[in-house]
Amino acid sequence: MPELPEVETIASELRRSLVGGRVTRVHVLWSRTIAQPDAAVLADLLPGQVFTGVGRRGKYLLLGLDSGDTLIVHLRMTGRLELLPGDSPALANTHIRAWFELADGRNLAFTDQRKFGRIWLVGDVAQVIGKLGPEPLDWRFTPDDLAERIRPRRVAMKALLLDQTAVAGLGNIYADEALFLAGIHPLRIGVSLTDAEIGRLHDAIRQVLGEAIGERGTTLRDYRPAYGAEGAYQNRLRVYGQPDQPCPRCGAAIQRIRVAQRSTHFCPVCQPTRGETTS
DNA sequence: ATATCTGCCTGCTCGC
DNA sequence: TGCGAGCAGGCAGATA
Fold first, then answer.
1. What is the pTM assigned to this prediction?
2. Catalytic annotation on A148?
3. Domains of chain A
4. pLDDT, tens digit, 9 for 90 and up, residues A128-142
């Protein structure tokens, strides 16, 4: 499940290898993968364009083109974006949804088992990513920014961290990890957080995402980086996917509940339902 | 307006 | 062994 650290890993890999590549031909096998414009229009517009840069905003990959347009890719659950040689057997993968031939013979391939992923070709990226909340690893992201997005909301903290307009880039795994590190119960609502708790949460979000990028992300089930070894952060998860295991901090059994239709993992001792811990 | 629910999708695991 | 139910979950769009 690609979240911010996984998308960042893919972006840095593609930045080294894709920039300078020129598209010569477009293949779309599942037209709904192309969110905008119509798949046939994209197939007409993209050939001839050169990739000039690779960026990331939240969980979106931003592939800049020399026309000034941007190819935006969201991997959602099972999407993969990778460069393949022209004779790669992976181009015959049944789950390949679109691929772009490059002038040097390589192919930029989008594979997506569950067809949730989407690709846009736009002149103005704000059309797609304009409503995203602050970028949590940006140095300009402050506890005050977080407070501004959380304080007005009477929603469970877990749901707030999954809301991409509150903070960009967190998914189910890192939301649970950040709340654990901050010592905040996932069912606490936004308005109830103290300044100290928001400060801890701000730091926890940045710590978890930074650690995970250092490990090239978390490989569970579907996600793996485009090249080389898989991510390794799955070995360092403190609560996500660890129900009934001892809490790494206090030893109590990790609990698993459902919040906002998502499986949610937390320590009932380190993340009390209300108020601060005294320890 | 905000909060919550449903649909999109496929493949794996579980219980009978 | 076979098979249906449940689950995984990001996000758009609908509903309350």
1. 0.94
2. no
3. 4-129 (3.20.190.10), 143-266 (1.10.8.50)
4. 999 899 999 999 999
